[in-house]
Design a protein that fits this description.
- The chain has about 475 residues and is α/β, with parallel strands linked by helices.
- It has three domains: about 5-145 and about 270-330, FAD/NAD(P)-binding domain (3-Layer(bba) Sandwich), CATH 3.50.50.60; about 155-265, FAD/NAD(P)-binding domain, CATH 3.50.50.60; about 345-455, Enolase-like, domain 1 (2-Layer Sandwich).
- About 30% of the residues lie in helices and about 25% in strands.
- The chain has 13 helices and 25 strands.
- The chain has a five-stranded parallel β-sheet with strand order 3-2-1-7-20, with helices on one face. A five-stranded parallel β-sheet has the order 9-16-10-11-12. A five-stranded antiparallel β-sheet has the order 21-22-25-24-23.
- Helix 1 packs parallel to helix 8 (about 315-330), helix 3 (about 45-60) runs antiparallel to helix 4 and helix 3 packs parallel to helix 6.
- It is globular and about 70 Å long.
């Protein structure tokens, strides 16, 4: 029986462990803290609980349009925190039960390679056990990136992990970083009534997202009252009493100060591999990231690496796919990782999701393209929901209209994007999407209309 040791129990790690067990391997899973990793415990899941609560509060603003009179609404932060903990526990307990059902041994402690086939695990009491392994899958995830800012250790400065465990809702908060994490927290805190400032070093927020849709998110956040400072960096944080004074430096060296109750660091994440002793056993890394091939294999043929510690995409769903690939290859089923249609989802309000190439990507690559934009205001379901802001944008190859990218801002965008991803995987053309019958009334019809619009045949769009 093939022996597999998985290091890290996040989405990538537990998926790899389960798939390896399904393929008949003897599997051990080493986890430093809690099964579920960052995603289940300190990332995807807890933030979505809080975001859902913030959407509920924000919906009260629209209630009068639907005949409701909502007055004197109270909100208890501690109740919400308990709801978050209960949700996380239900999911982590469920994953543990599934692992146990497949006969996977879970070992808690911090892992470090002693030799290429020997790993040491140190538990909370400091006791170390050495384990021999035939094959290894490294899935240790990532850690918060801390920017070089004077006063970073001041009380009231939070990481994204800290922000999910605070005792009370901040009255005001400055978020360092306008990427996915920063923008989601800006949505969350602004919906819950906080005064929010976002500081982004680059010229715009969501720099890796289609510029047109990112600009719309900027406008939406600004309308909510979020102050956004692009092309700006935080140079200093000073604490006086309960107030943090944050010094900003904008273009041309112009400085300004903002006073807030809290600062949230959301400047990205870094591979978490420092404790593994990888270099000493000859594993190649680049700035902490494990170097792997398309089979998720390192330069040592019996050691694989997946997820945030090795992947070009720091996304839980990518880590899970990579975990399946690594397990399949260990079991002798040759399978390469395919990044053709990796969806990106941002849980703003409305949601933003994309898959494939952006308009700018295609222009940079010299690919002749056609682009269509179907507005959500033309979609019946979006209007019934009172969420008609946004669009579906399709980027297609000019000659044959092969779909190269889909970008969606609107209700249920994070659900609809998987349909678009399937179209990319199947190398579908706009005509093939347009010929699919979508249920009515659904937001998904906007994808069909965008495909029709590319051909000048959209039904719910005026003649040009």
């Amino acid at each position: 029986m093939t022996n597999v040791i998985v290091v890290g129990g996040g989405p990538g790690g537990y998926t790899a462990a389960i798939r390896a067990a399904q393929l008949g391997c003897d599997v051990k899973l080493i986890e430093k803290v809690k099964i579920g990793g960052t995603c289940l415990n300190r990332g995807c899941i807890p933030t979505k609980v809080l975001l859902h609560a913030s959407h509920i509060r924000d919906s009260f603003k629209k209630a009068q349009e639907y005949g409701f009179s909502v007055e004197n609404v109270s909100f208890d932060w501690k109740t919400l925190m308990q709801r978050k903990e209960d949700t996380v526990k239900q999911l982590t307990d469920g994953v543990e039960a599934i692992l146990e059902s497949w006969g996977i041994e879970i070992i808690y402690g911090e892992a470090s390679f002693v030799e290429p086939h020997v790993i040491a695990v140190t538990d909370e009491q400091g006791s170390t056990t050495k384990i021999n392994g035939e094959n290894f899958i490294v899935a240790t995830g990532s850690r918060t990136s801390l920017p070089p800012i004077e006063g970073l250790r001041s009380e009231g400065v939070l990481t994204s992990d800290d922000a999910l465990c605070i005792d009370e809702l901040p009255s005001s908060i400055l978020i360092v970083g306008g990427g996915v994490i920063g923008v989601e927290f800006a949505t969350l805190f602004s919906n819950l009534g906080c005064s929010v400032t976002v500081v982004e070093f680059l010229p715009r927020i969501l720099s890796n997202i289609d510029e047109e849709l990112a600009s719309m998110v900027h406008e939406i956040l600004s309308f909510k009252g979020v102050a956004i400072h692009a092309s700006t960096k935080v140079t200093k944080i000073e604490k006086s009493g309960n107030i943090l004074t944050v010094t900003l430096e904008g273009e041309g060296g112009k400085t300004s100060k903002v006073e807030v109750s809290n600062v949230l660091l959301a400047a990205g994440r870094l591979p978490d591999t420092s404790a593994l002793n990888l270099e000493n056993i000859g594993i190649k890394t680049e700035r902490g990231r494990v170097v792997v091939d398309k089979y998720m294999k390192t330069n040592l043929p019996h050691i694989y690496a997946i997820g945030d510690c090795a992947s070009p995409f720091m996304l839980a769903h990518v880590a899970m796919a990579e975990g399946e690939v690594a397990a399949e290859n260990i079991a002798g089923n040759v399978r390469a990782m395919d990044y053709t249609a990796v969806p990106s989802c941002i849980f703003t309000e409305p949601e933003l999701a994309s898959v494939g190439m952006s308009e700018a990507d295609c222009l940079d690559a010299g690919i002749p393209i056609k682009v269509s934009r179907f507005p959500m205001v033309g979609n019946g379901r979006a209007l019934t929901l009172g969420e008609a802001i946004g669009m579906v944008k399709i980027v297609a190859e000019e000659k044959y209209e092969k779909v190269l990218g889909v970008h969606i801002l609107g209700p249920n965008a994070t659900e609809l994007i998987s349909t678009a991803g399937m179209a990319l995987m199947l190398e579908a053309t706009a005509d093939e999407i347009a010929n699919l019958i979508f249920a009515h009334p659904t937001v998904g019809e906007a994808l069909k209309e965008a495909a029709l619009l590319l051909q000048g045949k959209a039904i719910h769009f005026p003649k040009a």
